[in-house]
Design brief:
The chain has about 1150 residues and is α+β, with helices and mostly antiparallel strands. The protein has 32 helices and 39 strands.
Length: about 1150
């Protein structure tokens, strides 16, 4: 800046016109504060002095009280000793008479330790030692005072005879009592005269009283110490007593040397106080003693009956602590006074500042009003420079926009005197030193004197003031530049005034710019309004079009709001559900629609991210498929979605269901027809393999390599036939299983079960799969999972299916089985690290006959029915099944099982498998059956191949085989010869297997023959209801068939009667249903008496009885030993809980 202008100070500073009034106000306040402050200080010290004098007087009174107590005590002792000294025995000076009396007085007076009787020559007697030889007390002060007729309380001394520190209370012994002259009897007068004569005194009876000796009572100083110890003023205070020589008689400090006089104390202050005390002075002094942290008050007073004095030492802060309230009050008053002073000063300043601001604002407001008269930017700027120039009497005022890139000022308007040259357009600042930099930094530039150069001389600028005009959101800022032709020191008030003007100019400029923008925006809004009108018309047309589409939809549409009220629907909905054709908008959907639709509304509102499907019942027995999802609205603030309702689309699938049923029936029929030849293929293949392995191969020479290779190829070919047959059997079983589930023909064995045990059984069944592929199963099962209600076998089937799929599509890695409790559901997940499933294929995996992947490159594995069957099973358990997967990262198949809302009560936990095993193995064989007798088995089947296959299986075990082509032929053969067991097919000409079984089981002669149904028809309930003993499915499982035949043969007749005795009806019903499905005939009894009657009438093969009933009534003992049923088989049931 020094390169552009040179500053100098102006001697005459501008003064505000209201400054004199401000000084007068300050002067008045200062005077008032001075007077009030002086008065307050004087009052404080006066009150403080009065309080302090009262406190000192109180301390002195305490000292005087202690001295009074000691004086009273000494006066009492003097009176007691004088009384004893005036007794006849003591005045006789005859120790033989005085000693008994004095001993009595020592015992009588509590404070008196002993008495001393001194003769005029200084020799003496004591009550403790008698006559003291070789010692004389004529030099003691108390003796000298007593022998002159004066009493004395002497300073404490150490006794010469006892060595104990004590005080001597000395009184004279008078020849005649000075109080009264009591005449003596003759004997006493004689004795007294003799004593006086011996002492050299006159024996005349009428002489005046004269001291003839001393009686001194020795008293310990303990009483004085007690008084001193009890004398205190506050914490930290202590008292002491001094004798006439300044020696301490009693002191609360036990370390004080009592042999040293305070007159010789190293502390001169203490020595001076001791001197004042001994001199009999009294008063209270503020002193500083050596060894004390702070000053102390010493109050002291003399005694009357001894030349002693008592003092009390009080710490200054303890004595003056009663002044704290006064000091606090003084501080508060002082603080308030200072606060009042500061407040008054600030108020004056604020008032003066407010007045100055008011006058300045009034001036600015006048200028502002002129500036804002127009919203035209150029008019506003020109008015500004004119008003500023007229207000401050300036030669030139300019407004320009600063351009940072060009380092120049674009002058848009100016006000100048007529004789000055105009400055307009671009003004380069390169020749004005660092002015461009200052302007770029938006600083206020003040120059009192501009250096003379061509530019300033031409513009006639002697002094300059530049103020930035900052407009918000503007790329460039403006400057208001004021100048005078001569040097001028710009005052602060001028700068402040121009700053306010600059701010107002900035506002005016902004308003002008906003007005211009508003005009532009108004034109834009007008155009947009026209567009909005056109868009609204188009939107209304679109809404009408959409509404027409919704009304004409063949599917039913239902839209509900977040509160579950109907927001939109179409006519198809009322038609499908036969709802009254009225306005349903606003009606509660949960109330109007029960069942599946209400459940879908609830599910979509609680699980907004999922889509749900369900079958719903339509009017007139039709069936609909409903698809429901939540309507979500994205929030622009945080990106979250909020639930605003649900939409449900219902399609009539009655025809599709019928087609699907027909397809299922067709597949089921075909599958049944395939089972019979398949049974023959698998059965004869196994028989061939068995004959080759056991009979032919051992007979062939092992030396010929061609023969060996042929044998191996034959064996391998047979194995392929068997494995492929088993694979085809598995596929057919899956198809039939799904058909039964869809037809509702599955017998569900719902019971309470433990999830952990169910999973353990599934793991055990799949162990071989993991060993074959070298994979590891990782169980992650939460402990103590609650029990659920379900069909154990079916749920195990689901887990095995999911694990098999995981193993099938996982080459390396791991498979995890998780089971955890989430809310009111148990979630079971099978997680693998296999190939994964694409996102678009995940919805297909639960569809029938669907297999994901490229069917041209990936060989299909299975029928694609495993997952649909699993889905049906889980949904029957009111659960859900889903998949989460990603290509190359594995899959996660999960399903949920709900937990019963109420505790599972009333049903015992029965291990049916274990129970059936027990029922299949009798305890003993019937007595009428011989082990060596060859048993006859009747095989009934219209297929000769099947009869031959069964015949070969059974004859190999030593059974005699009889064959029949159909039911009628079988009945004729049975009438001719009763077989031991019948193997019966169902689908046969003339008479089917069910009818044949009914005839045989209702004939008393044949009803005892065990019957095994072996058929492709899966209707176990019907067979067991007729009384058959076993129901096996084709293809034949040779091991299972032979096992069941052996079991039934071991009985010798059909085992079918079971008596169940249990008071718990749910348990009895559950067990009865389970046993009926296994071919047993069930009789139920609810109590003891009923069980006795039914056991005797029905003669069951075994009795299953609740252990509590058996133990309570001794049921086993009664039936076996009292009723003659000693061979009856019993099974006891116990509740695990």
């Amino acid at each position: 800046m020094s390169n552009w202008c040179k500053l100098k100070f102006w001697q005459h500073r501008y003064k505000y016109p209201w400054q004199s009034r401000r000084y007068v106000s300050l002067l008045l306040i200062a005077g008032t504060i001075l007077v009030v402050g002086t008065t307050a200080v004087a009052s404080y010290w006066f009150v403080r002095k009065l309080i302090l004098e009262g406190l000192q007087e109180n301390a002195l009174l305490r000292v005087q009280k202690a001295g009074y107590e000691i004086d009273q005590w000494l006066a009492t002792l003097l009176a007691q000793v004088e009384l004893v000294a005036n007794s006849q025995a003591v005045r006789s000076l005859d120790w033989s008479q005085a000693e008994p009396y004095l001993q009595l007085e020592v015992n009588h007076l509590p404070d008196m330790n002993s008495f001393l009787l001194a003769l005029p020559d200084g020799s003496y007697y004591t009550t403790k030692a008698g006559f003291v030889k070789d010692k004389n007390i004529s030099d003691r002060r108390h003796f000298q005072r007593a022998i002159t007729g004066k009493s004395l309380v002497d300073d404490p001394v150490i006794s010469r005879s006892t060595g104990i520190r004590h005080v001597n209370i000395a009184v004279p012994i008078w020849s005649v009592s000075p109080l009264r002259h009591t005449p003596l009897d003759a004997k006493a007068a004689t004795i007294r005269a003799r004593s006086l004569q011996a002492l050299g005194f006159s024996t005349a009876a009428d002489q005046n009283p004269k001291p003839i000796g001393e009686l001194s009572g020795q008293v310990a100083v303990d009483r004085i110490s007690q008084v001193i110890a009890a004398t205190h003023f506050s914490q930290g205070s202590y008292a002491f007593a001094l004798d006439s020589q300044g020696f301490p008689i009693a002191h609360q400090d036990k370390t004080i040397d009592q042999k040293k006089s305070f007159f010789n104390a190293p502390d001169p202050v203490l020595a001076k106080i001791a001197q004042n005390m001994v001199n009999g002075n009294h008063g209270t002094q503020l002193v500083h003693l050596q060894g004390q942290k702070s000053s102390v008050y010493v109050a002291y007073a003399p005694l009357k009956h001894a030349k002693w004095s008592v003092a009390l030492v009080i710490p200054r802060e303890k004595l003056e602590e009663n002044l704290y309230a006064l000091n606090l009050l003084a501080v508060v008053v002082g603080g308030l006074l200072v606060l009042a002073t500061i407040t008054a000063t600030r108020q004056i300043k604020a008032f003066e500042r407010t007045r100055a601001q008011a006058e300045q604002e009034a001036l600015v407001n006048r200028i502002t009003a002129r500036i804002r008269e127009s919203l035209d930017l150029q008019t506003t700027l020109q008015t500004t420079v004119n008003e500023v120039a007229n207000l401050l009497d300036l030669n030139r005022v300019m407004f320009g926009w600063y351009n940072r890139e060009n380092r120049s000022l674009e002058v848009t308007c100016e006000h100048r005197l007529p004789n000055l040259a105009a400055i307009t357009g671009i003004l380069s600042l390169e020749y004005f030193g660092d002015l461009a930099d200052r302007l770029a930094q938006k600083q206020i530039v003040r120059c009192s004197k501009v250096n003379v150069d061509s530019a300033s001389q031409q513009a006639q600028i002697g002094s300059c003031l530049a103020l930035p005009v900052l407009i918000p959101d503007n790329l460039h800022h403006g400057y208001l530049i004021c100048s005078r032709a001569h040097a001028w020191v710009w005052q602060d008030w001028e700068v402040e005034l121009l700053e306010v003007v600059a701010d107002q100019v900035a506002i005016a400029i902004k308003q002008a710019q906003l007005y211009s923008q508003t005009q532009e925006q108004f034109e834009i809004v007008s155009n947009q309004a026209e567009q909005l009108t056109a868009t609204t018309t188009q939107l209304q047309d679109t809404l009408g079009y959409v509404s027409a589409i919704i009304k004409s939809l063949g599917d039913a549409l239902l839209v509900v709001d977040p509160d579950g009220k109907i927001a939109q629907y179409n006519p198809a909905l009322t038609s499908f559900l036969e709802v009254a054709d009225e306005n349903l908008v606003g009606v509660d959907a949960q109330t109007l629609f029960n069942g599946a639709i209400a459940k879908l509304v609830a599910l979509t509102s609680s699980k907004c991210q999922e889509m749900f499907t369900a079958e719903v019942e339509l009017a007139q027995g039709r069936t609909g498929k409903a698809v429901a999802t939540a309507i979500l609205k994205d929030s622009p603030q945080n990106g979250d979605s909020s639930y605003i309702g649900s939409v449900i689309l219902i399609r009539d699938i009655t025809f599709e269901k019928e087609v699907d049923r027909m397809k299922t029936d067709f597949i089921s029929t075909v599958s049944h027809e395939l089972r019979t030849p398949l049974t023959s293929v698998i059965g004869f293949a196994k028989l061939i393999k068995k004959k080759l392995d056991e009979t032919l191969f051992p007979l062939v020479s092992a030396d010929d390599k061609k023969i060996q290779r042929s044998m191996r190829q034959v064996s391998e070919n047979v194995n392929i036939i068997i494995s492929e047959g088993e694979r085809l059997k598995s596929l057919i079983n899956d198809i039939l299983d799904l058909a039964k589930i869809e037809a509702g023909k599955v017998q569900w064995n719902m019971q309470s079960l433990c999830v952990q045990k169910m999973l353990d059984q599934a793991f055990a069944a799949t162990t071989a799969l993991f060993e074959q592929k070298g994979l590891q199963l990782i169980p992650e099962i939460e402990p103590e999972l609650p029990e659920i209600i379900g069909d154990r076998e079916r749920l195990i089937q689901v887990v095995i299916n999911l694990i098999s799929n995981a193993v099938k599509f996982t080459t390396t890695g791991f498979i995890i089985c998780q089971a955890k409790l989430i809310g009111q559901e148990i979630i079971i997940s099978i997680i693998d690290s296999g190939i994964g499933i694409a996102k678009e294929d995940q919805a297909k995996v639960f569809e029938k006959f669907k297999q994901v992947g490229d069917t041209l490159t990936d060989k299909p594995q299975g029928t694609g029915l495993g997952l649909p069957i699993s889905k049906e099973i889980i949904e029957h358990h009111s659960g859900r099944i889903w998949v989460d997967s990603e290509i190359g990262k594995g899959s996660n198949f999960s399903f949920s099982l709900p937990i019963p809302l109420a505790p599972i009560r009333g049903v015992k936990t029965i291990d049916l498998e274990s129970l059936i095993q027990q029922l299949n193995f009798p305890t003993s064989l019937p007595s009428n059956v011989s082990d060596n007798e060859q048993k006859t088995i009747l095989i009934v089947d219209d297929e000769a191949a099947m009869r031959e296959l069964a015949k070969q299986y059974l004859s190999s075990e030593g059974y005699k085989i009889v064959e029949a082509n159909d039911g009628l032929e079988a009945i004729e053969l049975v009438k001719q010869e009763l077989p031991d067991l019948i193997v019966l097919d169902v689908m046969m000409p003339r008479m089917n297997g069910f009818d044949t079984a009914a005839v045989l089981k209702n004939d008393p002669h044949t009803m005892h023959i065990p019957i095994i149904i072996l058929s492709v028809v899966e209707d176990e309930n019907r067979g067991y209801a007729l009384g058959v003993d076993r129901f096996l499915n084709k293809p034949i499982n040779a091991e299972e068939l032979l096992k069941e035949v052996a079991i039934l043969m071991s009985f010798g007749r059909s085992q079918k009667r079971v008596l169940i005795v249990d008071e718990n009806v749910p348990t009895s019903k559950t067990l009865a249903e389970a046993l009926r499905t296994k071919g047993f005939s069930i009789v139920e009894a609810l109590n003891y008496q009923d069980s006795i009657e039914k056991a005797m009438s029905d003669r069951p093969d075994l009795i299953i009885v609740d252990s509590l009933i058996s133990s309570r009534h001794s049921l086993v003992k009664t039936l076996r030993f009292e009723k003659g049923l000693e061979n009856l088989f019993f099974i006891l049931l116990e509740d695990k809980k």
